[in-house]
Amino acid sequence: MVREDKTRISKFLKVEPECVNKLNQLNPALVSTALDIYYRARQACIPMHIMWTRRTEEEQRILYQFGRTIPPMGIITTRKPGFSPHNYGLAIDFCFKKKDKLITYEQAYKRRMYKEWWMAIVKEFMNAGWNAGMYDREFQPGHVENLLGKSIVEHRNAAQSKKTYIEGFGFV
Fold this sequence. Notes:
Layout: H1 17-23, H2 28-43, E1 48-52, H3 57-66, E2 91-98, E3 101-103, H4 105-109, H5 112-127, E4 143-145, H6 152-161, E5 165-166, E6 170-171
Antiparallel strand pairs: 1-2, 2-3, 2-4, 5-6
């Protein structure tokens, strides 16, 4: 449940406005669910932090081109521009943020409590119909996506034909 005052939903963790702004850039059909999961995580004192939601094809190109060579990030993306759910506001990348320090899955995995928090967030998204890719060849911890029943190629074709694509909002 979400409280009316969404700026401070627990006595320990404030909602980060930049995270809310990023979640509001998702496809409109996904915003409510994503915000609800984020608010509930913060309310439970889980330091969930949103890294990426929507990104342009140019941002995707840069990440795809240079993402493999920027230490210590390793492989950031395996998807070319136009073939990432992020390009259509259909994906979220998250991590934890504690005392202004970002905590990756690899770091969280080493600490039992963080690992449990991470899996709780993933489970919430999966229960809401999102795919966490846990059984995919290209599994990326901290990445969840919801293609809304379409393939990425269908989203790309629709964007190219501009039949149902609205700049700044994605597919509606």
